[in-house]
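Box S2. Input/output pair 1.
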Amino acid sequence: MSHFCPVYPKPRQQKASIWSLFRSARVSWMESLYERSYRMEMGEVHLPGHHLYMVNDPAVVKQVMNDASGNFPKSELLADALRPLLGDSIFTTNGAQWQRQRNMMDPAFGQTKLDVAFPAMWAATQDMLVRLGKLADDGAQPDIEIEMTHVTADIIFRTIFSEPITGDAAQRIFEAFARFQSIAPKLLLPSLYGIKWLVWPWDVWRSRRAAAEIRGLLASLVRPRYDALQKGENSGKDDILAAFMTARDPATGAPFGFDELVDQVGMLFLAGHETSASALTWSAHLLANAPDIQHRMHEESLAVLGASAPKQSDMKSLDLTRNVFREALRLFPPVGFMARESTQSCPMRDKTVPAGSSIVVSPWLIQRHRSRWAEPDAFNPDRYDNDESREALRTAYLPFGMGPRVCMGAAFALQEATLILACLARDFRLEPVVGHVPQPVGRLTIRSANGVKVKLFRRQAA
């Protein structure tokens, strides 16, 4: 049986010069990849004043991300590019500061919190189904990326603040983050190449303005709750903001200060909806182009959910739906590369990596590696039930990262995506728009340069 293979940037036949790589990576880091990138175990690029190593070998990935992770903190170059938006949050910090934040935040993401979050997920999903129903009735061909961004932002907003996000606020955040993403490579690459003087002040200003727009909205919601707590007032809300405000440093008993609280909320809001929105958008694209799998998902959702409101216990029975999302995460991992920094000179395979070098672990390459996956570019959610995929899943599948810094919201994202996709497949049929081919671009997350348009049709049963 042949499987749908989505379009992705055609790899270069040969390794390009460093200046050619610089020009292409300013648009999308995926444009700098060449054919051997998908087969190699380890590659290297020596930039002016900086060494960069790309590692695909599972043993080396495990060394960097897990076994010796303390020797490979997050890259400061990437952290500097993200700090205007995420501040000194758990996403940008390292060492003792990161460990303190993680210890304070982990309890808010315990498995028991998923049942607390489920009603918010379902309420936001219901609103999504209403919006999509209106689009289907009008015969529209929507950019599903916008809708997936809206629903995931709504879910994380309700989970953090106990209130829904308005359509206007969702659109503002979507547009501001899109601007921030497009500018980020222009700020990061000159630092990698040792030519920071090439950064335009205009780009710095635009980046900070986009970040300030998003942070301002979030800070305006945190401030009244924070001030009330300082006065001893209890909001009575059982949400993530309440958990973060009452979290205490295990060593000192100190809480998060206001600025640090905004940093963590900003990180959670953006990471919690942007990555899920990316993967759900690509899920919809894949389903629209694989009608047989979409039909099976529809049958599964009818059998498990029926026409009633879903329950959290239903999620564990939606096996195909969950595997569709897992396959979308494999083909289009939202975070396509993870940058680490070597704190000391160390051996890796047959090379000696100098201290200060950047080590890049790329889920995009590892999860499409030619020697580890059968049909690496094909959409085949059934691979997760095949014994021959077991080794690849164990060693070459890391959409949520690996080791101590593995995404704390992985279980949340899987539950959220399973619910959204099951309801989407139950109530609607998706078809591709003739002549529209999404073009993946790699920036901070993997999105489409030209959107992801689909045709929507109501199902008879809906």
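Box S3. Input/output pair 2.
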Amino acid sequence: MEKKTSNTNIFASKVGAILAAAGSAVGLGNVWRFPTETGEHGGAAFILIYVLFMLLLGVPIMVTEFAIGRHGGSDVSGAFEKMSGGRKGWRWMGLIPVVSGFLVLSYYAVVAGWTLYYAYVALMNGFAGKTAEEFQTDFEAFSSDSLSPVFWTVLIIAMTCGIVALGVQRGIERGSKIMMPMLFIFIIVLVGCSLSLPNAHLGLQFLFHPDFSKVTSSVILSAMGQAFFSLSVGLGCLCTYACYFRKDVDLMKDGLSVASIDTLVALLSGLIIFPAVYSIPGLQPDAGPSLVFITLPNVFQQVFGNIPVLAYLFSLIFYLLLVMAALTSSISMLEMSAAYFHKNLRLPRPLAAVVVSLVCMLLATFCSWSFGDWKDVKIFDMNFFDLFDFLVAKLIMPIGGMLMCIFLGWVVDEKVLRAEMTNNGTLRSPLYPTYRFIIRYLAPLCIFLIFANELGLFNFFTEA
């Protein structure tokens, strides 16, 4: 039986640590981005490439964040200074999670708020009897409204704040232990229902049929990027959580566990979405929010229209699943900034969570208005939502991931790194030499390619 710790500032159990880290990685992108990327880029062929890059890129960078955070044991900024041997110049790297937390939660909460609203509509049976055109009109009207989406966005941030304010064990860990199992229960129920639908085999073919003719350099870059972005590495979420890891946690083993959970959720989401979509002739899966807020509500009503109770339950469980995925990720986003204010500015944890939440609510309001009244307000030719997304996904994540690899691969004393990876020699680590090679050479190169691809540099040179 696993021992638990009485220190409330670290995760009480190894299971709690894994579920919290997995909750951070599993988010809304697992539900709509991964299945669509898979179907459009060669099905099973894309999955194989993705899994390869998950092992060669995603897991090593995740373990890098784990190592930095746990070595510090208190806060991310102090962790960089401590692991560098007292070089104060690296302490500024600890600001990456602070900035990331504000930016990413501010725009992520907007879409998370949409999921909470749709769960409420499903609960009230508000989808019954609507046509495809009505779903399109309703979503456009809701997302562009000045007040309603802001209310749901503020509510999701408030829920997140309440969990973070309770602390590491009573809030983050307990919340993860409740929500992650619920998420898997919802997924399994929905997969079973979806696979029982007519023409479900067409959805499986779309998702898993290996088409190696589609594998190009662009597809390889997409798989590489999906492996990187899916785990939310580079932002500092996992680095922040690792500050609460126990010293006996096997970082490599837990990294593989988190990556496996993340990939499993993504694959199972595909087993929900595409058999359902292909059960209606003529419908094609679309990527992004339109898939889950317009296409799927229509699908649920058409497929189960003759059995209203099934349409009601399928819709409700699906949107509750989205809410769980959104919440587990938003908790880590808020924690990144709140932890800094709590530990460095000495604010009580509840006050730190409230301060960060209030700022994020204000910024999220601007992001929400980007779909309505402020859609023509541009900064660098982008509205607030797109600007925050650009800063996080195309700049902070790749640059942060690259700097973490350079830091651990070239700055940190090799003895310090080996001690962290082997728990001071108590663990055998046959993969350590391979891991060190990856973070020194392969990972920075791959992240640079992702960075260049996200900025469209390859397209620029091709067109030139």
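Caption for Box S3: The domain at 14-463 is CATH 1.10.4160 (Hydantoin permease). The chain has a mean pLDDT of 88.
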